[in-house]
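Section: Multi-chain targets

For targets with more than one molecule, the full set of components is provided together so that the structure can be written out for the assembly as a whole rather than chain by chain. Components appear in the order listed by the source. The example entry contains two components.
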Amino acid sequence: MKVIYVDNNATTQVAPEVLEEMLPYFNEFYGNPSSMHTFGGMVEHKIVEARERVAELLGASPEEIIFTSCGTESDSTAIRAAILSNPSKKHIVTSRVEHPAVKNLYEYLSKNGYRVTFVPVDRKGRLDLDNLYKNLDEDTAIVSVMWANNESGVIFPIEEIGGVLKEKGIVFHTDAVQAVGKIPIDLKKIDVDMLSLSGHKLHGPKGVGALYVRKGTKYSPFLIGGHQEKGRRGGTENVASIIGLGKASELAAANVSDESIRVKRLRDKLEAELLNRVPNTMVNGDRDNRLPNTTSIAFEYVEGEAILLMMDEYGICASSGSACTSGSLEPSHVLRAMGVPFTAAHGSIRFSLSIYNTEEEIDFIIEKLPPIIERLRELSPFWKKAQ
Amino acid sequence: MWEYTKTVKDHFLNPRNVGVIEDADGVGEVGSLACGDALTLYFKLDENKKIKDAKFQTFGCASAIASSSALTEMIKGLTLEEAQNITNDKIAEYLGGLPKQKMHCSVLGRDALEKAIANYRGQAEKKIEGEIVCECFGVTDIEIKRAVKENSLNSIEDVTNYVKAGGGCESCHEKIQEIIDETLGLEIPAKKKVIRLTNIQKIKLIEETLEREIKPALKKDGGNIDLVDVDGNNVLVKLQGTCATCSASQITLKHYVESKLRELVSPELLVEEVH
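Its structure, encoded as tokens over all components, is:
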């Protein structure tokens, strides 16, 4: 069965060009970049190149890029660095819709001596900026706000927040795992102190990420060990994956305009057709200010896991904000924070496209999904009553 | 990804007996849109008072749909008395098992059946009996007790998997733990009784606990323990056998003996070793 993959906010296919560039570094050029010999030294050169490519994608300098093992490590490193280098400050701020990589760390810190402000979002998933600014004070060590939300795709006004925080001298970290590669980012123009990204969300491999740390930002390493990454992250480099992330960044820089034109057009078509063909359906999130590849659609009176499994029968891969898919009993914290009614949240499906999706694939989903919803609604005791 | 059995998948993708029986003899409705699953069950009896037809409508995940479908198949041809014996376990068994986190789907089926039978017998809808423990999902202590008893659940997580209680804000976890302990006949936490313990009672209880709980455990490792004296809340003991020479004996004392005595006798006790 052909796989139709529209779950690219979960993970992406490694681009063929990326894989090709990585392969020699497993068993051909397997030297340690820290070694003195030429064999290791040439690996070091490739890492230098990868760092330049990542920096280029972000509008940063290479020395501002630290390679890590994943987005979560980047987030943890950034947040812990900020609080360790401001030991007297005991207040930290984030949004209510963060990825667990940030959310759960903040919850942990809230039980360990930190006062935490979780800034709410409105019904469209937009950050309540007044609330954010109002809560800042002398005691605030860091603000960490995601660049774009993984479930709704809503983009937060990072530039504006960055300007305000710079003026107040508060460290600003952004989890940009979902934004990098999907929308243009230029850190020369935007005041962000630290930024997390992850390889496998932009057609790079899993198990590699990066943390941008603006020059002059107080820093302390999370992994203490060897001199790698200039002592900012101990541990032998994950060479092949770092090279892969570099290549993926180069491709992303080249593809970002395609993403915002072609991918967006396919996403818009999918969304419009589904809304059109299926009654009692709505989009979760601010449609004017979203990632070009993401749509979260709520199908009322049906349950998300059932939809996913029926789509799975056709090879269609998406994800759901439903409780039943996560093992918890409540729908996703993002949809709840947005105030999406439970009745709609349970039946919310997220489609996240990539440059590899084709028009045929989108047409296939548009053809197959409406009958699935209809079938499940016929099973549902609420559907007839609601009519 | 959930691991569903072939039978679950089959009943989900090709559900049996979907629909409404207009002139049903019994109808049972459980769950709600907000909960994420809901089931309406209908049955019709024949002249011998056996279930001739059963139909369902379900809003929910794959296992909720499959459990409903299975239930309608299972009850056909049964008398109501026989149908009443169908527990959630039997529904899960019929499906070749359900993931633990999905057991509440089978409970949903059993509850709907019970309600439909009550509806047929003209029993007024059961008032909410007992006390709501989990506010998030409106689950009472009676429902939790029943699930614990029928399925020998011994953790909060299990209770959540079966009846949803405790799956929301988690503020009822302590209460659920108490219900589990009580239902499974575990020792009721001693702190409630301790207030009334006289010195003699306390010493007796310490002795009993040592004999019943602690000595058998230590003997397994070739050790033993003797009670020397009880001075207020100080329990003086002497370790014997391998315990006496074991370098980990202090850990045994504090982490095992003391915590056991605190749990079962009084939380204020301090255990000390005399040589």
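The first helix of chain B runs from residue 6 to 13.
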